[in-house]
Amino acid sequence: FENHCFIGFVILSQYHSIPVPGPSAAVKGLFSLKVRQVAFSAALLVSGSETIGPFNTHTNLIFKNVFENIGNAYNPQTGLFTAPVRGAYHFEFYIYGPGETSHGSGAALMKNGQQICIAYEHQTSHGVKSANGATLLLEVGDVVFLRQWVNSKISDSTNNHNTFSGHLLFTM
């Protein structure tokens, strides 16, 4: 066993809490990763109530009532989320509308101007709600946002019916 280096691994299950000595400084240096914590959640309105739309073109939505913005990657002035690190991110959104004959309620999740998925609902009365989400591989600087569907209406109040959230799952 001369001139050999052995590295041991200890696997702990969730049921064992036996303390284990940490790795040496050299091993820590080899395997350290700088991971940023990124998560946000926001609603459309800070106060009051409003019906937004209809518009004759797709229109970017700005979610101004920020619940959390860990890592400050979401901008409540522009409605844009900008990826600070390369990684897998998960986004979800909920859209609420007034429910009427002439207009549905919907929005599209956009990545760098490309439509990823939509949430859309149309019924003739009572409030309507739709939702969608996606996991996306983002490069540093990629932009994700929501765009209101053309000719649709979205209603919100201090009950925060419309929300947009996202978080970094892991870096790559």
TrEMBL record:
Pfam families: C1q. It comes from the Eukaryota. SMART domains: C1Q. Signal peptide: none annotated. Residues 33-172 form the C1q domain. The keyword Secreted applies. GO terms for cellular component: extracellular region. PROSITE patterns: C1Q. InterPro entries: C1q_dom, Cerebellin_Synaptic_Org, Tumour_necrosis_fac-like_dom. Keywords: Secreted, Signal. It is found in: Secreted. This is C1q domain-containing protein. It comes from Gouania willdenowi.
